[in-house]
Fold:
Amino acid sequence: MSGTVLILGGTREAAALAETLTRTHPRSRVITALAGRTREPRPLAGETRIGGFGGAEGLAAYLRAERVTRLIDATHPYAHRISANAEAAAAMTGIELEKRIRPPWRRQPGDTWIDVGSEAEAARAIPAGARVFLALGRQHLAPFARRADVHFVVRMIDPPPAPLPLPRHDLVVGRPGTTAAGEVALLRAHRIDRLVSRNSGGTGAYAKIAAARTLQMPVIMIGR
Structure:
């Protein structure tokens, strides 16, 4: 294989794909596009592009300018806008689009999941007086801002550029834990009794789900 590959990334799977393609197809140019939400993203194999494209038309213009021959959507399962733009840009340019969206997690024995369809529904499902670990990015916190009767703990890779919209909260700065034991320790240290998470799938963020199972803690799971 030769030519130019554009990977719409931001996931561990996208990083692994970039490494595989650069190793197995050294004649190809491999570019991974990141949204730019993380200030210091981990190094990736091949080239890295950071920032938005300016909608479907902007992405199509980029595909033409860089002579992209293969477009792969390996974004987060909830990155609906870029996935829609990728479909539209592929149609505009005639480039075939490959989708590599990871499957959702499945409920396991011992899990206590409360299934909801949105962040707003998740906010309504939290009982008064709860201590909640919000496993969500800062762009998804607004629906929880009215829950002054709940104490939230939020983890972010980078410190937020502005105060969070939550009336009562603690901020933990760092990457998600990689082991259930580590996540159990974090949840216990903050006296968490509820977890709110999107059903992202994959292995990178699953440790907190396993930790909740260990602690017999309810998980308010936002479906796709």
